[in-house]
Amino acid sequence: MHHRAHPACFVRSLLASALCGACLVAGTIPAAATCGSANCFLVTGTREGVAARGALTVDLSYRYVVQDRKLSGTRRVSEVVTPRIDFENRLIEPDHHREIRTQNTLVQLDLAFGLTARLTLGGSLPLINDRDHEHFDDVGMPSEHFTSEDGTSGFGDARLEARYALALKPHDLLVGGLAVKLPTGQFRLLDSEGRINEPGMQPGTGSIDAIASLHYARQISPMRLEWFLSGSYRLNGANSLDYRLGNEMILNSGLSWRTGDRVTCSLQINGRTTPRDRYLGDEVPATGGAFVNLTPGLRVTGSSGTQIYGFVQVPVYQRVNEANLAPGAGLLVGVSKSF
User: Fold this and answer.
1) What's the CA gap between 71 and 131, in Å, rounded?
2) pLDDT in tens, 140-187
3) Which of 239, 231, 249, 233 is nearest to 288 (CA)?
4) Distance between CA 319 and CA 74 in Å, rounded?
5) What is the pTM of this model?
6) What is the dihedral of CA 192, 197, 198, 204, to 10 degrees?
7) Are 199 and 240 in contact (CB under 8 A)?
8) Please, are residues 292 and 269 in contact by the beta-carbon 8 Å criterion?
């Protein structure tokens, strides 16, 4: 390896091995709201590192998470009842929904371009942001009824990002990133009763959010190992409905190892925490929480340089505020190619 003579080649190599190693994700969908929406908060490698100068990386991923774990705090319970946000009358209606499940599906396109050897510009486009939702409306009232028609589908909130290599050495990479999430997704879609749907069911949030991130990776060449540590903080704005998602903090650490010329395995631990959302300045019950996942992953690199990867995210600790649905195991698969 000739990292000193060819720093751009080093960056390509480091990014390839970090593809299964880094995990910070992403924030293109709300982390948790009253009806709950979830995403694999993973990083596939196109968001943390820097690309070689003039190189374009295209990454297409599919994410699937089902929320059906009924929790009160950290305890499993048989029933979860959450409030409804009545945007028309500007009220929080307590104990309105009896939650059953939410199925989250996301198809996302990530792009990264190396403007210089140290500076990379990137973007994320959530092409399909689909939620299938089941719950009982109007709990405890004569009109209580089951509905599976309050899910939504649409284009999500796009994200623009700049990443800069603060340290670029033969075996060490430290990258800082700044990003902005734009309100490109719809956030006023109606439910089956013709009212504005819950924030957690919308494809977008309607807010402009700022994200800061830091990612460190170190190669241990003789052992074909690499370990990483990364974190991000997302500062969420309020939308025009006066609803603000809780700010999100993500911390991740992991290890990847090459088992051959084309196969890389990884194991990582991912943590995420958010406070309660706010509506009209007041805290919204049954929103926010803390989540820790253990995530094994696998990447295979083809002869053309195309990389196919997969991750399974397994919950090891979950705590919700009040009571809410929490996600079960999540799946992320994708393909990445640099030009």
Assistant:
1) 20
2) 889 899 999 999 999 999 999 999 999 998 889 999 999 999 999 999
3) 249
4) 5
5) 0.87
6) 130
7) no
8) yes
